[in-house]
Amino acid sequence: MKALYLLAIALGSSVAAQTITFNGCHNLFDNQNFVFTKTGVDSFNKNIYITTPVDGQPCGGLGTCEFKIRWNNTLTRWEFLADEGNGTFTTPSLIYYNSTGNAGSQRPPSNTFGTWVENTAATNGQCGGNLTGTNSTMTGDVHSSPLATSDVTKSKIQIFPNPVSDVIRISGIENGQSVQIYNVDGRLVKSDAFDSKVDVSQLPAGVYVLKISTKNFESHEFKFVKK
């Protein structure tokens, strides 16, 4: 049997892993938490999340406790996949999919945004239907609105100066949790706890995306130029 614990991905001591915690479909997965950790970004700038099994924790039903959440660009939907039983995802089982207006975000939707549809062909209907806030929990690096933040809210948030040489300042946000900076290839190059002043002096000149995550799981993204 397998259990799931957090796979820590570190790009230095200051980097905080981006995780999603899921609990649901108890007939197949038992009543336990599964922690997905962001393992990278695909070619469509969508985050990829994978769990890691550890022997010792039961995981009835499918006989597997390793899962992946990823974007399927061909079918324009987010998918919740189970591995083949040996930790690989060459021909995974599709457990749920969500294709309701979620193409605009890097992160998958929560279980209350759009519809996570149960794939009964794989589950034999044992998950009890589509995911909802009453039959499951899905918290962490997920979004719950079409843009993950409203244009009105975003208009109140500013970053300056831009272009910037040393320190970029953030105004108009009170519940910030973390700040992350991605380069033009989508690679995470800096991650810290939220601060209204972000030191970018060590970054090479170029174009970057500053992502601000809040304590209620919203995100705000701004493009800036490092001189």
UniProtKB/TrEMBL annotation:
It holds the Pfam family Por_Secre_tail. The keyword Signal applies. It comes from the Bacteria. Keywords: Signal. Residues 159-219 form the Secretion system C-terminal sorting domain. Residues 1-17 form the signal peptide. InterPro entries: Secre_tail. This is Secretion system C-terminal sorting domain-containing protein. It comes from Chryseobacterium angstadtii.
